[in-house]
């Protein structure tokens, strides 16, 4: 025994696993290696309050109490370059090798996907880190026109934040409505309508062919031949797991580090959680990788038990994610697919306050709440319990009455 545990990634998943390990009674040495120089900070506000307000960095801190309580050696601003899964040793960007560990926890998250063009132009930004958020915040101070490429969660949040700051905002996406993958077409269309009411313009069902500009971006060229003038372009085309550095380490990597339902990679002593990991999930045979805040936090509790006791109960969560756009707080539990039946309870779509229940083969599989946080939590439980869509509708109609 080396009495040493190494965590790679010093963000939400990395911090929460350390806290959970200490709570579970792990008394050995812990080293955390993180590429960013900042103490662990929260990413969700980066596309919301951090852009619209004048938040200082400290407000994003993920841990309120003293960091020293955790008794961790923090190696911040330090990139892990390779992992020797036999010796359980990590090689850093400096060439140094860390002392062998009894367990390595991979918590390297995800990075923003890029388009194959335009990365070298000033004014083209993707949003994943605090440094990106600072760049974007300073760019939009001087800008008039922002084009957001990609109508997913981050793109739509940035669009709402920029519009709230008074900028002219256009959103471009090849799909016919925003947030289709999270909300389905009908509710996605409702979100678009809300954005339009606020003055956001949409270019949907159309691709982006390239950017114009010499040194700095001046316009976005669309596949229908049109051109959108832009002072700033935000590229929000999704994220990919940060696992390239693990190539050749002997781990199964397939859209994330493939793990069992307790975070074990199958390689002795190697575990993963958060955005970089794909845990087996009895509720979803394809074991999707969730890029959700709640997922990382819940996995940390399970994984700490798994590491310390050598076993933990299998974790098969129903995913949960929220997004804030203008005054809308939208929360989603479960997964919505094409062809699911949808029933609106507890309000009306046009009032932007309701609960939408989604059924497939007679079962409740998903729920979306527009300003309905309490009911959505109950639905998440109900989906896990496998209740019928009929019963879910009856329950929520009764509450409404
Ligand atoms: C702008 C934005 C808004 C979001 N809003 C929401 C929201 O409203 N609701 C929601 O549910 N979720 C939201 N999310 C998603 C949520 O923030 C993530 O699910 C969460 O951050 C995942 O935590 P993580 O620790 O797994 O990964 P990350 O937060 O990505 O952290 C991984 C860390 O590992 C570091 N790292 C990577 N590679 C290496 C390496 N080789 N060596 C050392 N360190 C490395 C990275 O630099 C990073 O600091 C948002 C994300 C973003 C970017």
Describe this structure as you would to a colleague.
This protein is of the alpha/beta class. The chain folds into three domains: 4-111 and 239-309, FAD/NAD(P)-binding domain; 114-235, FAD/NAD(P)-binding domain (3-Layer(bba) Sandwich), CATH 3.50.50.60; 327-400, Enolase-like, domain 1 (2-Layer Sandwich), CATH 3.30.390. Helices cover 25% and strands 29% of the residues. The chain has helices at 12-23, 49-52, 130-142, 153-164, 180-197, 293-309, 373-385, 389-400; strands at 4-8, 29-34, 72-76, 80-84, 89-92, 103-106, 110-112, 124-126, 145-149, 168-173, 201-204, 208-212, 219-222, 227-229, 232-235, 239-241, 257-259, 270-272, 277-279, 320-325, 328-334, 341-348, 353-360, 363-370. Strand 22 (341-348) and strand 23 (353-360) form a beta hairpin. The model has no long low-confidence stretch (mean pLDDT 96). It binds flavin-adenine dinucleotide. Flavin-adenine dinucleotide binds at residues 8-14, 33-36, 43-44, 46-47, 79-80, 107-110, 127-128, 154, 242, 245, 274-275, 291-294, 296, 321-323. Flavin-adenine dinucleotide (FAD) binds at residues 8-14, 33-36, 43-44, 46-47, 79-80, 107-110, 127-128, 154, 242, 245, 274-275, 291-294, 296, 321-323.
